[in-house]
Amino acid sequence: MKQEIKLPEIADNVVSGFLSRILVKVGDVIEKDQSIIEIETDKAATDIPSPIGGKIIDIKVHTGDEVRVGETLMTIESEENEKNEKKVKNEKNEKNVKNVENVKSVKSVKNGENWENGENDLNSLYVSPVLHDSPVLYVSHSLHVLVPASPSVRRFARELGLDISRVKGTGVGGRISDDDVKAHAKEVIQAPKIAEFAGYAEVPDFSKWGPVDFQPMSRIRTITAESTVNSWQTIPQVVQFGKADITEIEKFRLMSKEAVEKAGGKLTMTAILLKLSAMALKQFPKFNASVDMKNKQIVYKNYINIGVAVDTEQGLLVPVVQDVDKKSLTQLSVELSGIAERARKRKLTSEEMQGGNFTISNLGGIGGTSFTPIVYPNQVAILGVSKSTIEPVYMDGQFVPRNMLPLSLSYDHRLIDGADGARFLVWMCKVLEQPFLTWL
Ligand code: CAO
């Protein structure tokens, strides 16, 4: 029997996605639940599994297409009859209910930790909203987070065009009510709008001068482009350069590497900079703030979350390490190794990408002497790190070889003055040279 495979609902308020990869080809014999395409939305990339097994006889979509929910993806010649399918559906529903129960018991969910593993992937966790109207944990595909809300509340959010996973629940265990949805709608309406693009200029026909190829922009590329344009247009940025003598701290790093490895992490300069940046943010609270021009106020944050730029095959991702000031260097190293790996495997949760106050961008593993990073929207500073090298430094009347680390601090001049920027970076350099200064 020939059967058309259509794009299922990906998430609340998501009506389409960008087709980043087709994972099968015409003639392939696939199994039920085998991934057939990869779809990217604003927040994540999701593999779409085939609801049935069989032979692919036709593929109707192409890489780069924007595919809408309900659109036919491909046709499959399947031997499974309707009876079989019904049986499969029932089994799936039972499995989903079990999965939800399992998920409820995962404590880390509340803390926003990633609970993904082979068992509870996006598809196995999805529960049809029509199952029942009692409080139950639903999964938002796009955001990879569990949302405690009844189907009627979800429906209400959907009707208002809101993403339920962004609504803060005030009920027991964070359960979301209609009132929470209304409060969120109010916030959305009142929130300052991101500056609109002035419009994109047409590019010339480059094929006039030679052969060209076209490649659609991936979702991550598009988001990076829009977010950097937003930052460039709205934040007047200044860059302060500095150089830290890390000779002693490098000795400490090499000496302590093994102990950290035993704990499951890699002690690198980025982990050390996370630790020291948290101290700097405490010392200079302006750098841990945001500028709210609409209300003419500065938002000082009493928590220290730091984003780390991670270079992945798909592009730049910036996961956030939470409460950096409360964690040991070993904990930070373990966490950093974990998030960098998950970023590269595209396994980060949406929560892990949010709430950063400051960012570190370390390009030193690749090379280069200096660069000027762009401040992330809603933050006021970013620390750029280039490759450390052994340089002759004039000390006590002679040149001695020292390990020098180039740093660049880009900051938002609306809040931070040049003197503030210089003080921050000089402090960072001093502390990198003599970390025990932080004991004082
Ligand atoms: N100077 C010299 N060597 C450095 C260094 C520096 N500043 N930073 C890292 N290294 C070394 C590490 O010590 C490691 O060496 P070994 O393998 O010999 O131990 C090697 O480079 C690779 O480091 P790493 O990448 O494994 O680890 P990290 O914690 O330093 O960095 C991460 C993690 C995620 C920041 C990094 O992998 C990465 O993705 N960097 C790119 C960030 C980026 O794209 N920024 C641009 C964003 S736009 O502003």
Bound heterogens, unique: oxidized coenzyme A
CATH architecture of the largest domain: 2-Layer Sandwich
CATH topology of the largest domain: Chloramphenicol Acetyltransferase
Order of helices and strands: EEEEEEEEHHEEHHHEHHEEEEEEHEEEEH
Q: What's the CATH class of the largest domain, please? A: Alpha Beta
Number of strands: 21
Mean pLDDT: 82
Tally of individual helices:
9
Rg over CA atoms, rounded to whole Å, is: 25 Å
Structural class: alpha+beta
Overview of this protein structure:
The protein is 29% helix and 25% strand. The protein has helices at 82-104, 122-125, 151-159, 178-190, 219-234, 247-262, 269-283, 329-344, 418-433; strands at residues 2-6, 16-22, 29-30, 35-40, 45-49, 54-59, 66-68, 72-77, 137-140, 145-148, 237-245, 289-292, 297-300, 306-308, 310-312, 315-317, 320-321, 358-362, 381-385, 389-395, 398-412. Strands 11, 14, 17, 18, 19, 20 and 21 form a seven-stranded mixed beta sheet that branches. The protein has a four-stranded antiparallel beta sheet with strand order 1-8-6-3, with no helix packed on it. Mean pLDDT is 82; it is low at 96-145. Oxidized coenzyme A is lined by residues 268-271, 308-311, 316, 336, 340, 361-365, 373, 385, 387-388, 405.
List the topology elements.
Elements: E1 2-6, E2 16-22, E3 29-30, E4 35-40, E5 45-49, E6 54-59, E7 66-68, E8 72-77, H1 82-104, H2 122-125, E9 137-140, E10 145-148, H3 151-159, H4 178-190, H5 219-234, E11 237-245, H6 247-262, H7 269-283, E12 289-292, E13 297-300, E14 306-308, E15 310-312, E16 315-317, E17 320-321, H8 329-344, E18 358-362, E19 381-385, E20 389-395, E21 398-412, H9 418-433
Parallel strand pairs: 14-18, 18-19
Antiparallel strand pairs: 1-8, 2-4, 2-7, 3-6, 4-5, 6-8, 9-10, 11-21, 12-13, 14-17, 15-16, 19-21, 20-21
Oxidized coenzyme A (CAO) is lined by residues 268-271, 308-311, 316, 336, 340, 361-365, 373, 385, 387-388, 405.
